[in-house]
Write the structure tokens for this entry.
Amino acid sequence: MIVERIQQLKKEIPATVQLIAVSKTKPNSDIQIAYDGGQRVFGENKVQELVDKYEALPKDIEWHLIGHLQTNKVKYIAPFVHLIHAVDSLKLLQEINKQAKKNDRIIPCLLQFFIASEETKFGFSIEEAQEMLASPEFFELKNVNIVGVMGMASFVDDPSQVEKEFNNLHNYFQLLKSSVFKFNKDFKEISMGMSGDYQIAIEQGSTMVRLGSTIFGSR
Ligand SMILES: *Cc1c(COP(=O)(O)O)cnc(C)c1O
């Protein structure tokens, strides 16, 4: 079923939108099935689980860390992580930069924005992000590459609210793209959309959808 669901989704979503298979809490055997069906991009939200799966599974998988990242755990994923989706502070970005340097690499990152009405979500406001991006501390970071933005909409039934929140994220992206990141051709990603709201996210300009339960079943 996993492979069929991925194939169905690939038909449904535009080719310009990347499908990230969110495999958190799911066994390696499920990931291997998806891998054998051709899927190479997977997302996890916990560092330990991500490291365990990285070690056990094929090395050409692109692993995305999609969840909140604590500074003291960056070192465990720095050697191999493909994209960090939820950068929400300068302190975290500085640590990613430090660990990236140690591993002689540049780590691609997305800035997480707070777009939901709920209070529990992490992320920058646009003002906070602009302040950080204008700071001399940010300018010194040579081993991180900010390639876009990420956000999570509220868990509500009202599609117009979700649409508005995703639209806000798209606007933040455009604002940064036309200013701070004018000369960074890699700044092109908008990571938004989960199983419950990915259609709306795609309508609002998502370039990466993070889908778990739609592919692997409920957790
Ligand atoms: C779990 C998770 C997802 C996927 O959620 P589903 O509703 O199962 O598609 C996407 N993004 C983040 C940040 C997550 O933690």
Observations:
- The pocket of pyridoxal-5'-phosphate is lined by residues 22, 24, 45, 66-67, 194-196, 210-214 (CB under 6 Å).
